[in-house]
Amino acid sequence: MKYSTFIICILVIFTACDNVSGTSEQLPPEELIQGSWQVSFARIDNQVYPVTTPGFGQMRAIIAENTILYIYPDVDDNGLPTAKNDSLYAFWSFNNDNSLITISNPQDNSTLLVWEVLNLSVGLLKTSYEAQSPSSTEATSTYELTYSLTE
Question: pLDDT in tens for each of the 151 residues of the chain?
């Protein structure tokens, strides 16, 4: 009897202490999204693309309280990524239900990009947005990018 009471007390203690340091899952989205993110998975129009350099492996987003530094591969005249990076410094904000991220020009507040948030959790950000198709200058494609938190 003493042994089973001891085991139950130990289980209660471990259960109560399980989330003492892991409070990050309860952070609001505005705090959860802050950090340095690296693309870990890329899909364009439902086709998976390798995350290599040059290419999607160069893509990073450094997100602070209301700013974003978006780093992406430069492309040549054929639309193919080069080993060089280009970047965009802008403001970002969530919509009311945190399902969209609007990236705005810091000079005139015009919208540059709108990302649909497919998933935002500890260490994971998955977005979807429409942009120029990699195969045609006259068409758009749907980009789904998954980012992993690096810092």
Answer: 554 444 443 433 444 444 444 544 588 999 999 999 999 999 999 999 999 888 899 999 999 999 999 999 888 877 778 889 999 999 999 999 999 999 999 999 999 999 999 999 999 999 999 988 877 778 999 999 999 999 7
- Residue-wise DSSP of 35-70: EEEEEEEEEETTEEE---TTTGGG-EEEE-SSEEEE
Q: Strands 81-94 and 60-63: what pairing?
A: unpaired
Q: How far apart are CA 8 and CA 10, in angstroms?
A: 5
Under CATH, which architecture does the 28-149 domain have? Beta Barrel (2.40)
Other beta carbons within 10 Å of 97: 8
Structure tokens at 121: 């959790």
The residue assigned the tokens 């959860």 is 32
User: Rounded to the nearest 10 degrees, how much is the dihedral formed by the CA atoms of 21, 27, 33, 34?
Assistant: -60
**Which residues, listed in sequence order, are joined to residue 63 by a DSSP beta bridge?**
35, 68
3-state secondary structure of 105: coil
